[in-house]
Amino acid sequence: MNIVVTVKQVPDTWAEKKLDAADKTVDRQSVDNVMNEMDEYGVEEALKIKEAHGGEVTVVTMGPAKAVETIRKALSMGADKAVHLSDDALHGSDALATSAALAKVISTLSPDIVITSSEASDARGGVIGALLAERLGLPQLTQARKVTVDPASSTVQIERLADNGYALVEASLPVVVGVVEKINQPRYPSFKGIMAAKKKPLTTLSAADAGLDAAAVGLAGAASTVVTSEPAPPRSSGTIVKDEGDGGTKVAEFLAVQKLI
Amino acid sequence: MAEVLVLVEHADGEPKKVTAELLTLARSFGEPAAVFLGAPGTYAKAKDYLAQFGAAKVYVAESDDIAGYVGAPAAEIVAGLVGTASPAAVLVAATADSREVAARIAAKIDSGLIWDATALTPELVATQGIFGGSTIVTSKVTKGVPVVVVRPNATAPEAAPGTPTEQIVDVVISDAAKGAKIVDRVVEAKSGRPDLTEAQVVVSGGRGLGAAEHFALVEKLADTLGAAVGASRAATDAGWYPHQNQVGQTGKTVSPQLYIAVGISGAIQHRAGMQTSKTIVAVNKDPEAPIFEFADYGLVGDLFNVVPQLTSEIEQRKAG
Ligand SMILES: Cc1cc2nc3c(=O)[nH]c(=O)nc-3n(C[C@H](O)[C@H](O)[C@H](O)COP(=O)(O)OP(=O)(O)OC[C@H]3O[C@@H](n4cnc5c(N)ncnc54)[C@H](O)[C@@H]3O)c2cc1C
Ligand SMILES: Nc1ncnc2c1ncn2[C@@H]1O[C@H](COP(=O)(O)O)[C@@H](O)[C@H]1O
């Protein structure tokens, strides 16, 4: 099984995030960055499939030079090799350009399964999985809380989250799978894994190496733009009351005053 | 006036409230043209509703191929309609399924995509809360026909009764779009309560409830308020409540008039899914819980005392 898993480096969940004042893109320089937490579930699922059926796991990321830290993390969890698409020309790419660039790189790897996670915590688009399926012309098995691969019939079945339950969705390989965080419990890198990661193959590609048209990516190629940006008005600080035995009544009074009941 | 394509959000033909919201929004800058995609025989249930909320036109595409495969067939049809109708924009509801369809539409028609808009001006400038709502941006599409994914509760729906023209769409789905076949749908949670993302009031329970059976307290309070029930990830991971009810970064995003958090600490990932609620009430026994930093009304106390009292107090006020 040739498995590709996408990972993204994002500002740390707890960091105070902001947009760059000049070009209104996510400021990735002045904050601590981590692997998008959801992508840990993607990597874990890739490793699980490899452990069950054999094969190789390739990590793909697009991001600035320091995104290599996130690649190292995926390799130390157990992925076999990595491709890092990194070029200043890619800075400011929107989801459409990102998916086009990733698709271009991924198609050269001839995967059986491409795994993304359902959402990156920086822009919270939740669209790259669907876009990769569109761009690669592969079945879209996104929103998966369970993935079952059957090598004998070359099919994959998932449980796709739905509003009132789930849908069983089936497709023939190759496929794009998008995982939600219910799917597994990501492993921690072991010391041995961390040491081994340093020796694993890593290919760094420029936009030109990947065969990308510079005008179609980055800020130049973005199909939408941020016009204005400002801090949200602070929530007026609320009333905090300690229960003295009449807490429920107090809440009801508050709701009545607010005309909410 | 140019058409504005509105993808109808429905369950087996029954329209969701967000559809009326999108039609209302579309009317502010164009001619609302509803796009109904569903299994054969489902449109009949949506027809009156779409007319009631001002659809000037309805494109009706009914086919087993639409309901039978994930994402791609819907995108193919809408992209085709964009080609023939040259609309001013495509509006789609911010639901898990539809946002993926919207993305594929944008890719097919080579246009810009904006997600999670909470407002949209007639000039098509969208408002979005980013970074968990700490920053408000306005943004616009600079290429092609804007595809805008709009949050439920972004607009108040207004009726505008009329008689839309209906155009039956000849559905031909490519083989490439029939890759991800839906072989079964399994219903796990049917509650009779309002939809979480559309509800005006949401009552959510967290780890503080301590056990699945204690969710009955939350449900009872919710029912006196006509509310939907939500849960934190700690509660859904523990199996106390279905994950479909999870609120937060990796669950549903809700924006009700009133959000009541019961036994929820208010972790950043939970906050990401509920902090645009108009009024936030929290019940938590820990005065240091982060939820109190952004609640409008915080009650420091044991939920097992507070919630039953609150429920009966509301019942009494309703009766009296
Ligand atoms: C990738 C990722 C995605 C995530 N996505 C989500 C998400 O979508 N939604 C989400 O909710 N979380 C999400 N989380 C988890 C999040 O970080 C928190 O762990 C979770 O929200 C905590 O749930 P909780 O508040 O119910 O539990 P806790 O943090 O344990 O809080 C329980 C609260 O109940 C109070 N309490 C206990 N007993 C009582 C009592 N008798 N009376 C009153 N109060 C009581 C306690 O004081 C405490 O504040 C995510 C985490 C990660 C890493
Ligand atoms: N620049 C990127 N490089 C690699 N993977 C990405 C990138 N952006 C998004 N992804 C993948 O797509 C998923 C969904 O991202 P998004 O649609 O941006 O929320 C992420 O969790 C990643 O797995």
From TrEMBL, chain B:
What Pfam families does its record include?
Answer: ETF, ETF_alpha
The UniProt keywords, alphabetically, are:
Electron transport, FAD, Flavoprotein, Transport
> So which domain of life are we looking at?
Bacteria
Q: Which InterPro entries match?
A: DHS-like_NAD/FAD-binding_dom, ETF_a/b_N, ETF_a/FixB, ETF_asu_C, ETF_asu_C_CS, Rossmann-like_a/b/a_fold
Question: What's the cofactor?
Answer: FAD
Q: Where is the Electron transfer flavoprotein alpha/beta-subunit N-terminal domain?
A: 4-186
Q: Which family does it belong to?
A: Belongs to the ETF alpha-subunit/FixB family.
Q: How does it assemble?
A: Heterodimer of an alpha and a beta subunit.
- What biological function has been recorded for the protein in this entry? The electron transfer flavoprotein serves as a specific electron acceptor for other dehydrogenases. It transfers the electrons to the main respiratory chain via ETF-ubiquinone oxidoreductase (ETF dehydrogenase).
* Name this protein carries in UniProt: Electron transfer flavoprotein subunit alpha/FixB family protein
